[in-house]
Amino acid sequence: MGTERWGSRRTGGRRRPTALVAAGLLATGGAVTFLTPAAPASADPLDTCTATTGAIVAVDFGPFGGKLERGCDATPTTGYQLLRDAGFTTAGTVKDGPAFICRIGKPSFNSGTQYPTPAADPCKVTPPASAYWSYWIASPGQKNWTYSPLGAMARQPKHGDVDAWVFGATSIDGTKGRPKFTPADVRAGTVTPPEPTDPSVPQVPPGAVSLENATRWLAGRLTDGERVSDEPSEYRNHQATAEIALALTAVDAESPAARKAAAYLARPEVTDAYLHPEGDKAAPDTTAAARLALVAEATGGDPRSFGGRDLLADLLKNVCETGSDAPAPVPGCAHKGDFRTTNDQAEGQALALVALLSGGVTPPAGPVTRLTELQCEDGGFSSMLIPPLGACDSEAGATGLAVLALQRAGGHDTVVKDARAYLRKAQLPTGALPAVWYNTTGSPYATGFAAQALRALGDTARADAAVSWLSRQQLGDGGFPFEEGGDALLYATTPAVIAGAKSDLVTLTGGTPEPTPTEPTEPTPTRPTPTGPNKPSGPSPDLAKGTAYLTDPSRLLQGRYYENTPGTGMADFGLTIDGAYALAATGTDDNALRAVVDFLDKNGRDGTGRGLHDWTGIGTEYAGGGSIGKAAVLAEAVGRDPRNFGGRDLIAALAEAVCAAKTPAPDRSCAARGNYAYATSVFSQSLGVIAQVRAGESAAAAGPAAYLRSLQEPSGAWPSLIGEPSGVEVDSTAMAAMALDLLPDAASQAAVDKALVWLASQQKTDGGFPGASGNSVNSAALAIQGLALDAPSYEKHMAKARAFLASQQNADGGFNVAKGGQPGSDVRASTQALGGTTGISFGTLSRSLDGTTAPPAPSGSPTTPVIVTPGEAGGTGTNGGTGGNGTGGSLAATGTRATALAAAALLLVLAGYGTTRAARRRRTAPGEQA
Q1: What is the mean pLDDT of residues 260-280?
Q2: Are 808 and 819 in contact (CB under 8 A)?
Q3: Do 716 and 528 contact (CB within 8 A), yes or no?
Q4: Distance between CA 731 and CA 629 in Å, rounded?
Q5: Tens digit of pLDDT for each residue in 450-464?
């Protein structure tokens, strides 16, 4: 569930230590064997790998007195196997198993000793972010390392790839702690890859966008011919109105409809409402000021006197003179040169520069330089205001917009040249450009901005090819979808129409006056405000198919648990509980849910003899508050007694785990008073609070809840880690909001309100949310659960997020880890997607097991371990337990029953919102009285 599993960074699904798992010592002898170093595989000779055959892995033993060691795998399969086949040995943690790489060794260094040694780290709990093996990757031709977006078991290296493992500290986003050597230093052979040739111009038939149909569709969105009124919030209505004005002006420079919309936006009360969604004492919204200035410039107005505002001065006031590392950081200024109030979107940065330049103002050097820092290694640009040298995914739309701004600013020829090369290379044979570099299908949104940039750069034939493709994507009503096959969306239609009119944003807004320098002024503080209520609609994931995927016997082993490492019989107890949460939320297979719950509650054992409390660590010095809380929440959700679950009193154990004070180094069990022991993430802390409050122990949870509140950032968000530096994230913020929403005090409720505003602000245009793995399924699902705490205000955000999740569900019912990432269903992402779709908070999750039937315990086989669950009838098993015959639990139904489940699933999704809202006080909608 969520990102509390730091271990996933090295094992499977997600990208990075976005939160540390609460640690637990496994006391059984069978579990300890997983720390035993495995014998190295017969390594392929290093010269077997070439620049185009096999993959290279490099491990830096420098921190341990060694040198850089390399190895080759001529037939790479996974990053984990690459290490092993290259001759390295590895060992995992007691808690997480062999797939979590805690130690690495090689026979050629110090007689094969694995590092860190047991004296430095016993590898019983998850290592801290300041001392662990970080995983880096580089594809052929890449000059710099990228922090792996997947764990070693999930990543599939290609021929010519190089991997690197470095011990030490990294930042939460992988921007610090990079290898000290370059990919070129360790690549196979010495042959320098040839310079890429310029791709040929796509050979496509001529085509033109129907500007008449587009105009009709755009004008049809306007109420009273002057404004959009059906978006989720007033801010979005004004944004949409501005977009329409720009698109209509591209078709007809004297468009009466565009000028009427501009006149509406120029009403002082409308201008102020759009500029100040957070109140008139807050700094003006940069992206809003930029769009209004562009509308003024495109329709013959004056951006210095629009709605009673000097919009260009507003933009200059928002330039960050310092970053978050300043002695007294300015809220919203993460990096020097950023424009504040852009929601960390590069779009606002670029639009602001175009608006200033088109208005005759030379912007300060800082914002222009900052835009260049968003260029990725391949020449494309990120759509996010990433840190300098941060992990970077190129997007054609962001690249096109950045090119327009930088070309107009001048003085950055090399940057523009590289971006132009990226756009040429990214253009598909159809003429389209994908939204993100790794996609293989086109996006009208991205193609629209890219076509504008290509035409502005003189690549007319390529721009025409892009427009030809756009003409084939235009829908019958005249609008354009974001991606092929979607519904018409305004934010995708505007850039497509401007490109179809053979114009671009700079030309459209004039952009010809001679710039005059203007000095920026000090920015002013900001504060958030909620959006208005709307009813959700649109597509949603198929819960029945998702359940069938999760309960398939190839995944839910013998109907009882998910494996930590395939083929080991070692249960992943955290993932197993995630699966139970999903089944409890959807209600689509209660018998399978009972099988999982019984396995955990009746002290069932996995194929290595481990049980639930070998994972929670109860009764040991490594008892983890997050793990205990996670198990307790499940017990509470299904009507079992958390004071006697798996034979242990989880609520008493949580109370004992509350820290009285911070523990001195090197003991890292307690970060502060009120922290749960070994709860090293906001996720883990939140689970403990939820468990205690649900058990009626609000007084005992007061200290942990207060500590959780203290971790909230001024923006309303929470960081991922506790006790170590980390950035804010959607997953942790949603989880903390669910925990605090159970508490009636004003401070907790205010914290939740602030968190929900921040969550809503993070939603991407496609409905997704940013996470550690990119446009993350996990994060979108958790965001739905968080926003559902105030469903009337955020229903449209939730509907878009559900549609995003539906788009990431595969034919087998499972879900991708992230949009545009490595394709294929992932169990962990699927558990969160199913539960999150319902919108039911973990604080109110409830599913009765009355009337369910526990399936018989299955017998063993050569390929699957015997699972011992005391109390079930059957033949004799090990450890004095019992076994029996069976196929492994109640698995997914097919045929008519699956159809019935599908029908019931939609009702359950909608009911989830009602359950959530009925189980707690109704949160006051904006503008209402409590």
Answers
A1: 92
A2: yes
A3: yes
A4: 17
A5: 999 999 999 999 999
